[in-house]
Amino acid sequence: MIKSQNRKFLLLPGDGVGPEVVRETKKILEWFNKNKSLDFKIEEELIGGASIDKNKIPITDEVFYKSLESEAVLVGACGGPKWDNLEFSKKPERALLKLRKELKLFANLRPAICFEQLVESSTLKPEIVTGLDIMIVRELTGGIYFGEPRGIEPIENNERKGINTHTYTTSEIQRIARTAFELAKKRNNKVTSCEKSNVMEAGVLWREEVQSIKDKEFKSVKLEHMLADNCAMQLLRNPKQFDVILADNLFGDMLSDEAAMLTGSLGLLPSASLGARDKNGKMRSLYEPCHGSAPDIAGKNIANPIATILSLSMAFRYSLDLEKEADQIDSAVQQVLNDGLRTKDIISKGTKEVSTSQMGDAIISKLK
Ligand code: IPM
Ligand code: MG
């Protein structure tokens, strides 16, 4: 095995349950350092509310540049009620948005897979979710999250007006469409592209550009267009009709939370945010669980670390060329679930409840 030559791995635990779930993931990374002759230089920095408390800003330049230099970045979560009243540009979430935007991480991959052992934890009937395997491809650096103008303005009659702008250009749509089609080719060869072309011009453009990429470059992939509200409904009615779902930033945000819950718990869903490949085939990337900071359960050692641990496995697979090690993590998670160990969010009859750290330890014990 070739040493990873001190590749830098940056951990940004952040807020809420972030530090707890990242702690377990770090243990796994350290295990690989020790037992697999990998040699990651693991660094840990503040982000989000934790950074605001110490530095008064959600991410310092120093941390931002560190993430530019790192081979992979793993974020826990950003935000919480403590910082809810801050002015918009100072909120914890801005750190995450800045990283996504400035690292140009336009493609967010959110796999929603229903593990056989957890069919019972889903709120949907077993026959609806058994075998579910969807990949949501969410555009991450455009749309209403970043469009200008934006803001809150005073207007006449003592009223105020809130403004956000939803924009997409041809190239922004084309590059994310390519990501979705490429992925579909390695899966079940079908893309469902979501927009609201019945009410939004940007939705009409989205539909046309996605179709034209398919016609020109991906003739063999099946493409279906679906209105985003219909997709939300279809996800509950018959989720197994989907293979790859392609959506813009906002619709992708919502549809991925919905898809996650089909699998039993938001605590299981990892994500990868990827940029374009450069001449040397390298790309920037950031990995994070989809669940957010979950302030209601933070600090209690009950959060599910699996989404973050699977995010590490995605980092191994997509950024670090450690396919075998990624398989090892995935299989360790499966084995622990087979043994009936469950954190609170996925507990069901006949299984054993474990804490966040016990779950982490159990997964490590299966790596050996
Ligand atoms: C997500 C989250 C973020 C988003 C928040 C924390 C800014 O909901 O990653 O899905 O809206 O993108
Ligand atoms: Mg979200």
Report on the structure:
By secondary structure, this protein is α/β, with parallel strands linked by helices. The protein has 2 domains: 1-126 and 263-368, Isopropylmalate Dehydrogenase (3-Layer(aba) Sandwich), CATH 3.40.718; 133-262, 3-Layer(aba) Sandwich (Isopropylmalate Dehydrogenase), CATH 3.40.718. It has helices at residues 18-35, 49-55, 61-69, 93-102, 126-129, 170-185, 201-217, 228-237, 249-262, 306-318, 323-338, 356-367, and strands spanning 8-14, 41-44, 72-77, 107-113, 133-139, 147-154, 160-165, 190-195, 222-227, 244-247, 270-277, 283-289, 341-342, 352-353. The strands form 3 sheets. The chain has a 10-stranded mixed beta sheet with strand order 2-1-3-12-11-4-5-10-8-9, with helices on both faces. Helix 6 packs across helix 7 and helix 11 (323-338) packs across helix 12 (356-367). The site of 3-isopropylmalic acid has 7 residues, from helix 4.
Label this structure with key terms:
two-stranded antiparallel ribbon, 368 residues, Isopropylmalate Dehydrogenase, 10-stranded mixed sheet, globular, binds magnesium ion, binds 3-isopropylmalic acid, alpha/beta, 14 strands, 12 helices
State the CATH superfamily name of the largest domain: Isopropylmalate Dehydrogenase
Cα distance spanning the termini: 17 Å
Estimated radius of gyration: 20 Å
Give the overall shape, derived from the CA principal axes.
globular
SS summary, helix count: 12
Structural class: alpha/beta
Fraction in helix:
25-40%
Bound molecules: 3-isopropylmalic acid, magnesium ion
Task: Give the domain tally.
Answer: 2
Low-confidence stretches: none
Beta-strand content estimate:
15-25%
In spatial order, strands of the major sheet run 2-1-3-12-11-4-5-10-8-9
CATH fold name of the largest domain, please?
Isopropylmalate Dehydrogenase
**What CATH architecture label of the largest domain applies?**
3-Layer(aba) Sandwich
What is the number of beta strands? 14
Would you tell me the overall average pLDDT?
Answer: 95
**What letter string, H or E per element, gives the SSE order?**
EHEHHEHEHEEEHEHEHEHEEHHEEH
CATH C-level of the largest domain: Alpha Beta
- How is the main sheet built? 10 strands, mixed
